[in-house]
Fold these 2 entries.
Entry 1:
Amino acid sequence: MEKTMLIFKAKITVKKKPSVADPEGKTISEALSRLGYNGIISVRSGKVFHLEIEAESEDSAREKIAKISGDILSNPVIENYEMEIERIS
Amino acid sequence: MRVGVVVFPGSNCDRDSAWAVEGVLGEEAVFLWHKDTHLDDVDMIFLPGGFSYGDYLRTGAFARFSPIMPAVIDFANSGGLVLGVCNGFQVLLECGLLPGAMIPNKHLRFICREITIRCERDDTPFSNEIRKGEVLRVPIAHFEGNYFADKLTIDEIEANNQVLFRYCDSKGEITAESNPNGSSNNIAGLMNRRGNVLGMMPHPERACEKVLGSTDGLGVFRSVLSFYEKKVAVV
């Protein structure tokens, strides 16, 4: 019997590690202060990827996404990632 | 000497690089397409500048997964000479042949101008025809050339003398003002520990003829040729 495939939606957020300089975040932060937005303590820029994936189980979907996120979507030398996953069918 | 210039979709310094090898140095250059899986018996690999795969995701991120890269990595691991310039340097970092990573320039500007770099060693395959401490005028053209590595890695790189070129002022002093992009320790060119892989942001192939404004990049090409000829003579 064929295994039923489930569909999951994932959101992967890639952030620069705290020790890595973020010129983009710094520029945005400075611009916000200049534009009169008071109270901005810091800005860090990053990337968000939305993925839809077919898998047999949530565990297997997580495993696949973790591999993609660690090997391709982020560079572990300078970045960390976080993932959220949700079953949609 | 036969030099293989790898062409990725989006490479744009491949012709200049081949010209430096063939037209200026008088050696043979062959183009290797990114979908090739063999290196065509070359004596050296040149990863040229450009915007491989549109620089999508991160610079060099997709080039690393090109069909030719496993052969390039094997070649490097067996001691073959690999030179990566600009985007080529970024590819070497992404595929792990060199430590660290590139982040956007300190001032978030694409910098396209001539800068000065100091040669730190004269005993490598890439610099045996350059004097130690010599100041070279070579152009840079990049947005992501701000070299980063964690402190432990930087300490290791320095302890092993892996830095071949540093951004400097016209007198050869390593200063914050002469660092165009914010690179750690003014690093402009970095080798692996074994010394057979070099990545550099400045473009030596764009400084090989008088008509280009500088011939200071020629030293890198003369050095690899001289290294190759000595090696062949020994064999």
Note: The longest strand of chain A covers residues 6-16.
Entry 2:
Amino acid sequence: MCGIAGIMFKKADLDLQTGQALIDMLDGCQHRGPDSTGFALYGDAKSGQLRLRFFVGEDTEATEAIQRIQATLADQGADVVEDQVIGNNYRVTVNFDGDVRKFSYRMEHVAKVISIGSSLEIIKDVGSAHDVDDRYDVHCFRGTHGIGHVRLATESDVKPEASHPFWATGFTDVAIVHNGQITNYWKMRRRLEQRDFQFSTDNDSELVAVYLADKLSQSASLKEALASSIDDLDGTFSFLVSTRDEIGYAKDRLAAKPMIMFENDNLISIASEEVSLNRLFPGQALNTKEPPPGTYNTWSRSI
Amino acid sequence: MVTIDLAEISVRKANELIWKQGADGDDVEVINPDARHHIGVGLTSPITVKIRGSAGYFCAGLTDQAHFEVDNNVGWGLGDNMYVGSVVVAGNAGAIAGVAIRGAELVIRGNMGSRAGQVMKAGTLCCAGNANFMAGYMMYGGRIIILGDSGERLGEDMTGGEIFLGGRLQDLGSDAEVTDTADEEIESIREFLDRYKISFEGTFQKVVNAGKKLRYSTSEEQMRSIPFFSFSGDSSYWNPKIQEDIHVKSQIGRYRIRGYGGARSLPHLSDLAFKRDLSSAGDDVDVASKVEMYTEIGSKNGANPLKLSMPVMIAPMSYGALSRSTKQAIGIASSLSRIAENTGEGGMSDAQRDAADQLIFQCLGGRLGWNIHDMLRADGLEIYISQGAKPGLGGQLMAKKVTPELAAIRGIPAGIDLRSPSRHPDILGADDLIIKIEEFREATGYRLPVSVKLGAGRVRDDIKIAVKDGFDFIELDGMQGSTGAGSAEVIDYVGIPTLAAIIEAEEALAEIGRRDDIEIILMGGIRDGVDAVKGLCLGADAVAFGTSVIIAGGCIACMQCHVGQCVTGIATQDPKHEERYHIHVEAQNIHRFLESVRWQIASITQGLGHTDVRQLSRDDLVAVTPDAAAITGLPYAPEFRENRVPEVVKAS
């Protein structure tokens, strides 16, 4: 139960304030989900490097978690380039050229992974868009694209790790924000688990992320992956997916969850409600479009 | 004309200004709307509101007589429940445009989203562009004009009304069919289009209800008279109930509908006992004046509370299931006992409003009888999600009871077997629900408590959503609740017992530390003051009486509520049968019953050593069956079985 938002800038000469744009859009639909807020942001990637974010908690708990993480990184052959503690997060950049899936699953068993990516970083926590920005300086973030989420916790607790976006556990740089409910969750999860995929939560949004990342890893395009998701996933959903170079959406055939988009020469923006899109263009009447039921689309980064 | 700048003030302030302008007869211009929700909600004056940009959800919702012009797009629920008046939207509209309208003219120059015109009753919804998925879904009347293409499943499960399509018909929904147009219908459409300056040269196809699902193919039989007491006998195989069930099915060839409550024995409040010896409780004749029972419900978020002389309310029961006279008698009794009455589904009659000093107005998915004027004269608003007797399902009102008069109030065709929608058009999740509650509060100036009626199903999750979404109180209805008509298997086998429901609710609120942010009214088989006190001990802030009030007012428990020929004049809409019901006599009977409840609550509370009903707690109770102990976590103490029915009940 929530609101979602996503943005991709098309031109490099714009001041790409993706962080601030997502804060504004999510603040606009915060009424849909006051419990927690999160952002999936895409920065510059350096070849051979991965950036990892973990929830480590505070004080002794944090110290112990960081020790475990560092020991495991060394064990996995990941050399730490830089690291820092931000709030209850531990953010570390490593040189790594091994099997990312195995590496990810190993790290999941050591601490609560938020995201692993070459360009992706997920920032999420309890509280409003502005609360999370105050803690993690989301507004400073520059980049071509990102997606975000406000959450009303209904079936699980209000905890940082239960908030969205979710990354596709085991796959770098794939993130999802989702409004709705996947009703064939367990069936789809069992199918993926039979193929040795691991899940770090019982959240249906994580399933969508892993489902799409699996398709992508079998050399499907993002468009093809989204097309098959509409056939394979049951339930009500409007979701946004982002990868290192693309964003996309898919909407279920029942059109039970809202989604609206605005596109011009400079950007594509998609949100649960037009009020979020208008936050980017105060006082302007926007020529918006509502995606029809059972449709999907993608946009690629040209810069 | 005054200009209101939404970059400067909140929608709530803006709406107050718009109402004031309305009262003065001045038009309004709204600038910088930026797709904000609830613009113009609750306006009931014939002024024009010009919105310079896009509006969000429920633009012009719950209004009457006003005219709205929107320069750009609108979000979900355009013109929700609008009576007379108009909205012209220059851009596109989101989902459920024209939901539940009752006479308004809505014009959308662009495209409209899915489920346009859902449960609309009267008026015209015109879209110059394309419609989307399931336009006309469950519409009961009125006219939809689509100049572009239809989208999938046009007219899905429509009951009445007409859809005129100028563009391509993608496909038809269930129980919809294409039929011939009449010249005067086309003339009327041309006149409408001219009036709104829309040029269209094409021809129209007309889509209407095909009539295959309006009535059960066989009508419900009157069953043999078996009093409920033998009907619900303990023997579970081939007892009279099972035999009658099979007999009826052998005649009608489908599942059965019946009234009244479940007839299975389930763990209930009677499986609990009071810890103290209450043999001398009730000796004090003035006990009711010595125990503090006054209870306010509904002020958690600043609304004017319901003021109850004791922690008791009347459970929601509809005018429709019950006769007008019965609702009137219950209303009078509620006033005499200084508690609150509830409209249930299907609207508010003047008689009912006049009779009840405090009246909660209930809103269901079909929006039957729902409207801004009755909202404004209510003392509380309630969103029905489901009921304990048939959680997850809509109400049933058999054709015999859907008289022309009743159909007019509900805005539906007369003489159909009315199966109410089980879902709200605009509540598809906890997120939408937040926006819906806000619309009600906007429309009534934040004066009224807004509650939710929940049938016990997934209580733990539902209760958390209710408190997070900001409801003032919850009416929590367990499986022992009754109904005017429900399918027999569902009544007996679907749901969560009242006892388990209150326990889960309390645990859920404790888990998230929000117990003090909401009030719980427990209902579902509460029979007397003893049950009431047990409910209060388990944590309820008040309890509600339904079936017991009907019985107090003359019901003989014959379980023919669904048939519509109630011999006591209670569950009927037939004037001949209703004549037998003596409103003022039964009002006094119900009042006397409620006063016996008051006396029992006071006596038991005092007998337990308290001076205020708020001192009652779990510590006052034990469980006398293993099941009840497991459900409640109370100590299992079979030696207290004698205390289940304290002397105070026997004395009364």
Note: The two ends of chain B are 66 Å apart (CA to CA).
